[in-house]
Amino acid sequence: MPHPCLIAANWKMHGLRASLTVAQTLASQSHAHPARVVIFPPATLLPLMAENLKGSALKLGGQDCSPEDSGAYTGDISAAMLKDAGADLVILGHSERRHGHKETCELVAQKVRAALRAGLEPIICIGETLAQRQAEQTTEVLLRQLTDSLPPELAGKAFHVAYEPRWAIGTGLLPSDAQISEAISLIHQQLQHRFPGTQSQILYGGSVKGENAGHLLSLPGIGGLLVGGASLTAEGFLPIIAAAGPRAPLA
Ligand code: PGA
Fold first, then answer.
1. At residue 35, does pLDDT exceed 60?
2. What is the CA(226)–ligand 1 centre distance, in A?
């Protein structure tokens, strides 16, 4: 049985209580589609959204978590707090954390371990910058990020990897089909090598819109999409959910 597509809405630092209606619209209109839909709202909205979406198929996730379980870490949010607030998944190593907050692969791996301890399903993001692609370092960068951000503790656990070229995030630029396929197949090979038989989905993220979602999902090995800007409104996100169907895994 192919796994359902994972369609993830990364709201980043957007959303006040008024945005709860967006989640309600998504919950009422997305059930006809086979995709597994997850919203990653700001942490402040998680408990409210969890309450509002009770009984719906929509899942919730956090956008980041602390590598620590608890303690004197002002401003940080632990994986257990996210879980307690209604999250089932967590995005880790997003390029806005890696670059904006100088997160290293080693820190991302510690966060992954913390997420697993709390029973969260991590989506680990990797991706090259434009300068790295132009210098033909993409393969090397992706391999390093995969090796160093994915700890061995992931064996036998539910987790996913999102390929998000930094230069495609929020820019309207899309990699070519060949560039995406090359990255997806590299990730697939590495995952099968390190975690044989893993059921992990490989997501693509970066300038996904209703108009390109169907095509992106038709590329071999893509098991879902991580969507930023276009996930902030029901009008933007519903066509992306509608474009998804069960995907056949790579042989
Ligand atoms: P975008 O963001 O869809 O706005 O390009 C994607 C992401 O950052 O996950």
1. yes
2. 7
